[in-house]
Design a protein that fits this description.
CATH superfamily of the largest domain: Aldolase class I
Strand order of the largest sheet: 5-4-3-10-9-8-7-6
CATH topology of the largest domain: TIM Barrel
Helix content: 25-40%
Largest sheet: 8 strands, parallel
Shape: elongated
């Protein structure tokens, strides 16, 4: 199976394709559909590839006692956790409205299905791919049912071990070839020492046939840019319109100026990553023509002389002669004409040199 696949219609990920940037709106919309639309438009305007939400069918995600749990915090939208979550949960009809708006704006739209029934709804909604949040990554019945839907998947790995992620890989792979795994640490906001970007390279070794990405909850954009430099092919960051708003995710989210900076810098870094082929590039030729060094004669060298190392030096020379790195190839060869001290050693003046081109 190749390292790349079509995550969304017309958009490949993996291989040499650009990093797919997900703007995670989640529930930072404050339960307000107009704010949600503004955030979709923000994601598009800042250059993100996808606007993503979180969809739950609460009675399938939580048991009754969890929904009845008192929730008296500064971030609460209700007296119980159930009331809080219901306030932030959009209806099916609202999701269809948001999906239509995203289509009008011109950005891919999806959501994390936070339980099996939410996945059923998102499948009916015909989202381009399923996002599996870290809380369901070790939920193997959920993983199997989601994978069997046949849509591409992006799986976060917060709170999991490598042993668990190996099982996740095997479970999904059995039913679905098109998925990516994201390195993630589930803390909000995330401190740098807990990011563990090296896991990206470990995942690349463990799972070489799928794209690897990064889902970040840190402040700022630097760490996410480093993840792309390490080869992350999917990048997910929470976004907000105001970090001071009520809600546990806002502090770890990016405001519009930060998201725009992230996208711009990721695309710059991708240009800089290059091919991995080390060679002199056309842009280097002016510098090479001006300052590149070649072999010169340290002494007068009469025609017929057999060259020794002590006869040869390296300088910026006019005209350019034999390249500096080929100096030792000249030793033991015979010159075909007189060469004065400090003059360039030209390829055509050396018998059996073999390399006819100058440096």
């Amino acid at each position: 199976m190749p390292l790349k696949f079509e995550l969304c219609p017309g958009r490949m990920i993996g291989g040499n394709h650009p990093c797919f940037i997900i703007a995670e709106i989640g529930q930072n919309h404050q339960g307000d559909i107009d704010i949600a639309k503004k955030m979709i438009k923000m994601a598009k305007d800042c250059g993100a590839d996808c606007a993503k939400f979180q969809k739950s069918e609460l009675e399938f995600k939580f048991n009754k006692k969890a929904l009845a749990r008192p929730y008296a915090t500064k971030n609460s939208w209700g007296k119980t956790y159930g009331e809080h979550k219901r306030y932030l949960e959009f209806s099916h009809e609202q999701y269809r409205e948001l999906q239509k708006y995203a289509e009008e704006v011109g950005i891919y739209f999806t959501a994390s299905g936070m339980d099996e029934m939410a996945v059923e709804f998102l499948h009916e909604l015909n989202v381009p791919f399923f996002k599996v949040g870290s809380g369901d990554t070790n939920n193997f019945p959920y993983l199997e049912k989601t994978a069997m839907k046949g849509r591409p998947m992006v799986v976060s790995s917060g709170m999991q071990s490598m042993e668990t992620m190996r099982e996740v890989y095997k479970t999904v792979k059995k039913h679905n070839q098109n998925f990516a795994i994201l390195q993630c640490t589930s803390a909000y906001p995330l401190e740098a020492e807990d990011v563990n970007l090296k896991v990206i390279t470990e995942y690349q070794k463990e799972f070489p046939d799928i794209p690897i990405g990064y889902s970040g909850h840190e402040s700022g954009v630097s760490i996410s840019i480093a993840a792309v430099a390490l080869g992350a092919k999917v990048l997910e960051r929470h976004i907000t319109l105001d970090k001071t708003w009520k809600g546990s995710d806002h502090e770890a989210s990016l405001v519009p100026s930060e998201l725009a900076e992230l996208v711009r810098t990721v695309r710059l870094v991708e240009r800089a990553i290059g091919t991995g082929i080390k060679q002199m590039l056309p842009c280097e030729k002016p510098c090479h023509d001006k300052l590149g060094k070649s072999v010169v004669a340290k002494v007068n060298i009469p025609k017929g002389t057999t060259l020794t190392a002590d006869m040869l030096g390296v300088k910026v020379a006019e005209p350019m002669g034999v390249c500096a790195e080929d100096i030792y190839e000249l030793v033991g060869k015979t010159v075909l004409g007189d060469i004065e001290e400090d003059e360039s050693i030209l390829p055509e003046l050396v018998d059996n040199y073999g390399k006819k081109a100058k440096c």
